[in-house]
Amino acid sequence: KRLILVGPPGCGKGTQSPIIKDEYCLCHLATGDMLRAAVAAKTSLGIKAKEAMDKGELVSDDLVVGIIDEAMKKSSCQKGFILDGFPRTVVQAQKLDEMLGNQGIKIDKVLNFAINDSILEERITGRWIHPSSGRSYHTKFAPPKVPGVDDVTGEPLIQRKDDNPEVLKSRLAAFHTQTKPVIDYYAKKGVLAQLHAEKTPNEVTAEVQKVLSS
Ligand code: AP5
Ligand code: ZN
């Protein structure tokens, strides 16, 4: 399958992705994770992306389209993929259509993680991540077995620099002005499926499975 996950910061894209990935053997392409890795490694891409990310603004379309184009060429992505956090602008969606059209493939489903903004601050401020795998935890909703430590590797967890109430405000503004139109774009194509992302992680997983089996 070829899937897109769309929704505001903290809606649960990164939480559901590994579950869908394991079930359907898809590759998980999260532009946010790739950009954070580039920032940590201080590559030229990371240096260009850092300022916008720290402010909670979107990185330029050219940069993210470039990394997705590169990543989708990997053989592990040929059978299917989950795009998590991409496309986030209508321009990115159009570029993606071009890329896929050139290969004669198309998107099967776009999962819209619909949720009220008011819930998101608590989700974001309680999140701890394992940077190298992208696994995320929550102090209240999904605590690790040992506080501050990744369950799988035993490595330390960190908080994201943009996970604070101030930067969340601009991330939400970017979502509403630039990414909402992407949801309409896919609704018109008839591939949009709605999820109730305010439910518990297990309930959301069940909804995802229902959509994907239909
Ligand atoms: P990105 O990393 O994509 O961040 P985001 O969209 O803000 O999304 P998040 O990762 O914050 O949310 P999520 O939905 O993955 O939440 P999670 O599942 O972890 O992007 C970061 C930045 O990179 C952007 O601001 C931008 O600068 C740049 N960027 C990235 N892509 C770009 C693009 N295409 N174009 C331009 N710029 C781009 O869940 C959050 C927390 O809640 C966790 O702690 C989790 O445990 C918990 N949780 C999850 N589900 C539930 C639930 N159902 N109930 C209770 N708690 C839950
Ligand atoms: Zn995420």
Task: Give a verbal description of the structure.
By secondary structure, the protein is of the alpha/beta class. The protein has a single domain (2-213), classed as Rossmann fold. 48% of the residues lie in helices and 15% in strands. It has helices at 13-24, 31-40, 44-55, 61-72, 90-102, 120-125, 165-189, 201-213, and strands at 2-6, 27-30, 81-84, 109-114, 127-130, 135-138, 192-196. α1 (13-24) crosses α8 and α4 packs parallel to α5 (90-102). The chain starts with a strand and ends with a helix. The model has no long low-confidence stretch (mean pLDDT 95). Zinc ion is lined by residues 13-14, 30, 32, 85.
Which descriptors apply to this entry?
alpha/beta; Rossmann fold; five-stranded parallel sheet; 48% helix; binds zinc ion; two-stranded antiparallel sheet; 214 residues
How many distinct helices? 8
Low-confidence stretches: none
- CATH-wise, what's the superfamily? P-loop containing nucleotide triphosphate hydrolases
Helix content: 40-55%
CATH class categorisation: Alpha Beta
Shape: globular
The overall number of domains is: 1
Structural class: alpha/beta
CATH architecture: 3-Layer(aba) Sandwich
Summarize the structure.
48% of the residues lie in helices and 15% in strands.
Task: Detail the topology: elements first, then pairings.
Blueprint: E1 2-6, H1 13-24, E2 27-30, H2 31-40, H3 44-55, H4 61-72, E3 81-84, H5 90-102, E4 109-114, H6 120-125, E5 127-130, E6 135-138, H7 165-189, E7 192-196, H8 201-213
Parallel strand pairs: 1-3, 1-4, 2-3, 4-7
Antiparallel strand pairs: 5-6
The structure holds BIS(adenosine)-5'-pentaphosphate (AP5) and zinc ion (ZN).
